[in-house]
Specification:
- Belongs to the methylthiotransferase family. CDKAL1 subfamily.
- InterPro entries: Elp3/MiaA/NifB-like_rSAM, Methylthiotransferase, Methylthiotransferase_CS, Methylthiotransferase_N, Methylthiotransferase_N_sf, MiaB-like_arc_euk, rSAM, rSAM_horseshoe.
- It is a single-pass membrane protein.
- Its cofactor is [4Fe-4S] cluster.
- It is found in: Endoplasmic reticulum membrane; Membrane.
- With about 575 residues, the protein is α/β, with parallel strands linked by helices.
- It has three domains: about 65-180, Rossmann fold, CATH 3.40.50; about 185-425, pyruvate-formate lyase- activating enzyme (Alpha-Beta Horseshoe), CATH 3.80.30; about 430-490, Beta Barrel (OB fold (Dihydrolipoamide Acetyltransferase, E2P)), CATH 2.40.50.140.
- The chain is built from 18 helices and 21 strands.
- It has a six-stranded parallel beta sheet, sandwiched between helices.
- α8 (about 235-245) packs parallel to α9 (about 270-280), α11 runs parallel beside α13 (about 340-350) and α14 runs parallel beside α15.
- It is globular and about 100 Å long.
- The two termini are about 40 Å apart.
Length: about 575
């Protein structure tokens, strides 16, 4: 067995080098005799590889994203903004979920079924190994739910940072942005209104005028997500409307959790906003006002009646009553009684002849008796609302109503059926057959057999599918009616109004791509998709430019890092051998 000790000690490790061996400096001087051999490169193959990064690349901005939005028009507006920013950055928004690399799921927390669909979509995405980003009211209100663990979340007031969240998620990270937008400590309405967006319908612009509300309804989970009232300034809303009309929009929807409360936090009011907006609405275009609760709209009834009589504002208002029992309304903390609701409805029906008033009703709220429910049935029979949203009560986790004594499920279902039967017992449009109406055509029917238009009272009128009608205001003769619609025959010699001097954007085209936003992306303006005719003809090429630029930048970064490492290694070797 060899000895553990050595008879001869080495003074230094370099003594191992024999005298005949080349020294490091000799090897260095001998490099001049090396003749490099040029290697031919397949130029065509190189260009293809340069333009097409490897399939396992994690370079952000080149992936396909599928979006799904549940819930209200406010949520839909948020979804449009997120899609616009992602498309502007270079991501491809696809309608094919299976082809997508990442799913962006924009949720609604109003009712259990909507959250169930949301939860099932998350499960399906995980089964298909998709990257996932969650948005909307569900994760904002309850981000610590078990089925949300480990997933990226973007809050309802952070949608202007969706590109960052998606980028980090694609890299394999989990990111959560749930903070509030504030200015000098004051809560803002949300992300900026001039961000890029992709309108689901290029003819309709959805503008959220405020977020949150001033109520504290015991059944509402949305309050947990959207918070207290925070309004956008009037000038910002007017500018957004003007920009929309310049992009070919012919119909604007104003939305929020309670439009009637608009401005109370910033020293203004809903009528003040509406009077400013009607000044910029072009001929042939229309404005639709969203949902408002009775307590706040009742303070502005005189002004609201004047505005709803304006020729460019739909004579339509959505005022949820929820129940016709004062006892139930008190338990809901709705802050009004049935008499208050009736006063608002009666006043508007008198001052705005023909107005369409839509309302909501919850069946089976905790503590609702048969007598309470019958009072609600009588209200529907009395007013015969042409648009009625009937909802079975669902206890939402974390709300006071979820802790109350519940009405049996079978009773709730039966009351929902009974009220639906009452609603379908009358036809609100039969008396309008034979009328000549002016209607604005904005979309295609679900069965693709008709175009969908709306008259002065935002009543649905189906018209023939003539492409020249889309986005125009035309005159029709009503010849048929159903429960939810009328059918109109266009008048041959009638004038067709074109609302905007500009052609609408193509479906899927990015709106509002300002120079400021381009600079925020860090891209050269020419590398970001434009709303030009060239971009409309070839949207694929407009997406390729920013992707290639980011690919080149990434390659340059990698080369720089590699050269720096080589330099450090060489310096280390020189130090060792010298």
């Amino acid at each position: 067995m060899p000895s553990a000790s050595c008879d001869t000690l080495l003074d230094d490790i370099e003594d191992i080098v024999l005298q005949g061996d080349l020294k490091p400096q000799d090897r260095h001087s001998a490099r001049k005799h090396v003749v490099p051999k040029a290697r031919k490169r397949n130029t065509q193959k190189y260009l293809q590889e340069e333009n097409s990064p490897p399939s396992d690349s994690t370079i952000p901005g080149i992936q396909k994203i599928w979006m799904r939005t549940w819930g209200c028009s406010h949520n839909n507006s948020d979804g449009e903004y997120m899609a616009g920013q992602l498309a502007a950055y270079g991501y491809e928004i696809t309608e094919n979920a299976s082809d997508a690399d990442l799913w962006l799921l924009n949720s609604c927390t109003v009712k259990n079924p909507a959250e169930d669909h949301f939860r099932n979509s998350i499960k399906k995405a995980q089964e298909e190994n998709k990257k996932i980003v969650l948005a909307g009211c569900v994760p904002q209100a309850q981000p610590r739910q078990d089925y949300l663990k480990g997933l990226s979340i973007i809050g309802v007031q952070q949608i202007d940072r969706v590109v960052e969240v998606v980028e980090e998620t694609i890299k394999g990270h989990s990111v959560r942005l749930l903070g509030q937008k504030k200015d000098n400590g004051k809560r803002l309405g949300g992300a900026r209104l001039d961000l890029p967006k992709i309108r689901k319908n290029p003819l309709i612009e959805i503008i959220s005028i405020n977020t949150g509300c001033l109520n504290a309804c015991t059944y509402c989970k949305t309050k947990h997500a959207r918070g207290n009232l925070a309004s956008y300034p009037i000038d910002e809303l007017v500018e957004r409307a003007k920009q929309s009309f310049q992009e070919g929009v012919c119909e604007i929807w104003l939305t929020s959790e309670d439009t009637g409360a608009y401005g109370r936090d910033i020293g203004t009011s809903l009528p003040a906003l509406l009077w400013k907006l009607v000044e910029v609405i072009p001929e042939g275009a229309m404005l639709r006002l969203g949902m408002t609760n009775p307590p706040y709209i009742s303070e502005h009834l005189e002004e609201m009646a004047k505005i709803l009589n304006h020729p460019r504002v739909y004579a339509f208002l959505h005022i949820p009553v929820q129940s016709a029992s004062d006892t139930v309304l008190m338990e809901m903390k709705r802050e009004y009684c049935v008499a208050d609701f009736k006063r608002v409805v009666d006043f508007l029906k008198e001052k705005v002849p023909g107005i369409t008033l839509a309302t909501d009703i919850i069946c089976g709220f905790p503590g609702e008796t048969d007598q309470d429910f019958q009072e609600t049935v009588k209200l529907v029979e009395e007013y015969k609302f042409p648009s009625l949203f009937i909802n079975q009560f669902y206890p939402r986790p974390g709300t006071p109503a979820a802790k109350m004594a519940q009405v049996p499920a079978q009773v709730k279902k039966q009351r929902t059926k009974d009220l639906s039967r009452v609603f379908h017992s009358y036809n609100p449009y039969d008396h309008k057959i034979g009328e000549r109406q002016q209607v604005l055509v904005t979309e295609e029917s679900f069965d693709s057999k008709f175009y969908v238009a709306h008259n002065r009272f935002y009543e649905q009128v189906l018209v023939p599918k003539n492409p020249t009608f889309m986005g125009k205001m035309i005159e029709v003769d009503i010849y048929e009616s159903g429960k939810h619609f009328m059918k109109g025959q266009p008048v041959s010699d009638a004038k067709v109004y074109t609302p905007s001097i500009n052609k609408p954007l193509a479906k899927g085209e990015v709106s509002g791509l300002t120079e400021e936003f381009r600079n925020r992306l860090g891209n050269h303006p020419s590398s970001v998709p434009h709303t030009s005719a060239a971009a409309r003809r070839d949207p694929a090429s407009s997406r390729t430019a920013p992707r290639l630029q980011r690919l080149h930048q990434d390659c340059a970064l990698r080369v720089s890092v590699g050269l720096a490492l080589c330099a450090l290694l060489l310096a280390f070797l020189v130090k060792v051998y010298n």
